[in-house]
Amino acid sequence: MWSLAQDAAAQPVAGTASWVSTLVPFVLMFAVLYFLLIRPQQKRQKQRNAMLNALKKGDKVVTIGGLHGKIVEITDDTVVLLVNDATKMTFDRSAVNNVVNAESK
After folding, report:
1. pTM of the model
2. Domain boundaries, the chain
């Protein structure tokens, strides 16, 4: 009778330890994925949004398609680029890939 009481008392502890040991690898996998994939992507997205918000007239930019031009007009969602000192082209602001150099005034 005494051994049945000991087995009953030990049973939930063994079940809890098994449950925790199963959960630990999943927590570790999520932590690794967060620090290797999710966090760097969020950081790059913040930098891109900061770059897009800092665009101004006179900046020389490259679009996602590889077109080089100078910003002549800018609104909240569009950018007009001057290409080859003759052609004006309108793009979405999100189509700007990077700023080559900013014109200093």
Report:
1. 0.67
2. 1-53, 56-101
